[in-house]
Amino acid sequence: MMQNAISQAAWDWQTGRRIVADLDQWKKEYGYVEEPFMRPDGEEAAAIVRTDEAEYSVICGTELWEGRWDKIWKPGYGTDGRFSCLVSELGAWSVAVDDRVWDESFDFLWTPLQSRDGTRIGAAVQQGRQYAAVLDGNMWEKTFFAINDLAMASAGDQLAAVVQTVALQEGDIEKFQSGCFTVAVNGEAWNQNFVNLWDVRFSEDGRRVAAAARSTLYDYTVVVDGKSWKQRFDGVWEPLFLKDGRIAVPARSGGKWRLCVDGEPLWAESFVQLWQLVVSDAGGKIAGVCAPEFGKWTLVEDGKVWSQRFGEMVMDPVFSPDGRRLACTGKNGDMWTIACDDKVWDQRFDQIWAPVFSPDGNHVGCRARDKGRFGVYVNGKTMVSGLAFAWDPVFSPDGQRVLIRGVGSEGDLAGKIFREVLEIG
């Protein structure tokens, strides 16, 4: 999603390397420099710096923002290329985007979210001893006793969250068990309360909202637009909207996990564990992380379980854009690797990030850390290694080249933030 927000066709895809910023110079000039960030196209880098005693700002390339704040939190580039962060001035929190601050300020802000195109920003907010959400500076009119699990529709025009609608005193077990929590969408709370809810999700078109819920201390279900499924389970994980509008969820009954769609089992298979569901953009295939037996992890795709097994963990299942291929990260012992199409890479790493597919699905890459250094890998082959830091690879629209974004560690690249475009051999 991130790769497509800024038109990739307009990016510089000529092969070659270019220095974008000098991290060592930032450290020399400001002393205190936090983790740098790079724009998706690799054309700009930024970081939080300390400009004076207990005073902070943002450096973008060679330009220092005019704004000065006592705290800066949750910085990062949006998919539209703008740099945003939460900022505090004398205890009043707001949002700064490219050195411009919202007119509104709040007692506290957290969980910043951006629309798919990066143009809209929302967050959870505390104001006075009440809680709500804010979108582009506009706070919900209705407030609540608590708020968490904030979610945003992909278009950025709606926010939803779990909210507490009933005042709860410490130790008031009876009231807690009767249900004090529900979901609010754009500030309007559902009519039914629950013991608790989590994993709030919008449908792709933003018209529907689902959440996992606990209806009693021992019964779990899914709630869609304020209405509960009639089925009750021993446990559920995150609900997933399918392409046809149905809702899939891993659900546990009788000691086994199954994939249920609209409350009914879809696959005949059951598992020791099933979670992290994903659906392909093309074809609507469903996959997830599963444990066919205790202590053995792999992926399942449309009910078919991979033959590969990992002893520690499997994470980050990702479909290729065309839905043909499926990849994940896997851990055996202390080492991580990538598995794609039920085949495992030969390389092993200390740490690894989620796999990234090229637009045509022909290539899969990732960034990884090994022995304190970072590298970028494509199809199991090293593109670059020995870096002080690296960001996820980005593939060109035709899938023939890959953009590397990193911080060098040796020679002329030492301490330099750079972008490099390489041909995929």
UniProtKB/TrEMBL annotation:
<dbReference type="Pfam" id="PF07676">
    <property type="entry name" value="PD40"/>
</dbReference>
<protein>
    <submittedName>
        <fullName>WD40 repeat domain-containing protein</fullName>
    </submittedName>
</protein>
<dbReference type="InterPro" id="IPR011042">
    <property type="entry name" value="6-blade_b-propeller_TolB-like"/>
</dbReference>
<dbReference type="InterPro" id="IPR011659">
    <property type="entry name" value="WD40"/>
</dbReference>
